[in-house]
Amino acid sequence: MYGMLYESVAFFIEKEFGKDIWKQVCQIVDCKHNTFKTHQIYPDKLMPDIAAALAACTGESVDYYMNFFGRCFVRFFSNFGYDRMIRSTGRYYCDFLQSIDNIHLQMRFTYPKMKSPSMQLIEVDDEGAIMLYRSGRTGMSKYLTGQFIEVAKEFYNLHVDVQVLESQNDIAGGTAGPIKLTNASRVVIVKYRLNFDNRDYMTNCVNSSIHQSQLDLAAVDLNILLDFFPFTIVLNRDMKIAYAGEKIVETWILHNPDEDPKSFIGSKLVQHFKCRRPKDVPMEWNDITQMRTVLFEFELVRSNNKDVAAAKEIGKSISSSRKDLETNKPILLKGPLYQLKDINSLIYLCSPLIENLEELHSYGLFLNDLNSHGLSRELVMAGWQHGSTLEMMFEKEEVRSDELEKSLKLSDSWKKQGDELLYSMIPRPIAERMRNGEESTCQTFEEVSVIFIEILDLYVGDSSNIQNAMKAVNTLNSVFSAIDEEIISPFIYKVETVGMVYMAVSGAPDINPLHAEHACDLALRLIPKIQALKLPGISIRIGINSGPVVAGVVGLKVPRYCLFGDTVNTASRMESTSEPYKIQLSNYSAEKVSKANYKLESRGYVKVKGKGEMETFWLLEGPNQ
To answer: How far is CA 23 from the centre of its chain?
Structure first.
């Protein structure tokens, strides 16, 4: 499927459900596309997969969202100006229904790889119409239902109720195509009943009486029609060719030089022509007469019979003046099939589908072979003149689209890097609140545990010596990096490093009732980790205290998340009065972790600056050691 269908899906999911739901859906279906390119082909199965993922997120059914996606596409394609095409099909909703196949045919110039379904209006009445849908994809019938409903609502101000009368080979939730148990081709066929107020259309277009002046017209000789339409084919009730225009016969001989020219008239239509659109329609009288408004597209079939020498000579004589013929390219014919009740026949009023002069020559035709009436000749000339310009414009748009996609990917990468840098300076919850415009960045926490770690004996010798200073910086980086590796978010948050002191907290900014236990676990992991570095003369000491703090973001340039309060000061004193490779806890912190079976040893009373005598404890082991 082309990217435009998925663009509509992504746009309206974000609009109706929010970006978070769209991201969640993308994760479920493992969709790696941040954006969809209008003219790029994407897997067919992605559509029902997205519907299933959205259903899982919201609780609605998959069919509901396939219907929703169909309605979204109708609303979305107005951005490309295709709403004007829909409005131009006719005054009535039935005019649109009988023009759907023609719209798809026109769109093939913009979307050459489009695998569009085939749809025919086969019956109309005052209460609505019956549509026949054929497709090689399964699971898209509900998508089409949504389109029927939305087009009627948006462009014709009608309420449509859609019912499925018959369904063959349609498998919900998949688009890979019907399962083939034999070599015969299988196709999805769905017959819809569309209920709506169709009285105006029936009165003005179906049941209107013929003007008397038309009834008085004399009969028209069939030969006149064949002269006016040189590519015309007349079929009898057996779908055999009864009459044919001069140019269609000549073209058939040109492309089948080994066939007997006399065998064309009287042969079955399907012997010489393959129906490309509508797809998989039986070439039977009763089926074709129901399709009064359908444009048929046939491909001329080449024969491999090489036993008729006379036909070969005739073919050579015709093709001798057409040296530009490229025999690999089949000719395509397009036009309606009308029923002529007076002679009990069908007439195919067609013209060859030719885009430019190159195609004209590839078919072995010239401009004067085309219908003299209409715009066939003018369109071929216009296609030749503008084809190269359109191709260049299309290529430029593709390049711009690629550049835009690269820019979006680069923008996402920069955003991720910026977020990582921001979250290293400010806790993620705080940063997100600031992004949402919340001015208050100050918060009170009833109880946290603050950890201080200091590196001892960092400077050996003269600290003013450059070599000693560089060695000290490298050692400091090694120790602090080792500590960073043990910080487990959201249980522990690194606050800052000042000089040779490393500060962390548990219980802020994410509230954690086990803050004391997590702080002690970190301290116990750090002692053997730093010892394992085997840095000569280097040791650490650790102090922990628990209590209330106030936290907030301070500064505009290089803002930092800081902690304030007596709990912080006491934790700093626990570290400064500790000893190498030992962990000193305040009395309150010791009380909390002792209940969790941490092994402690009383140090006694220690003189603490600004506090006087305080009872402290050494942390020896965790509860599982």
So the answer is: 12
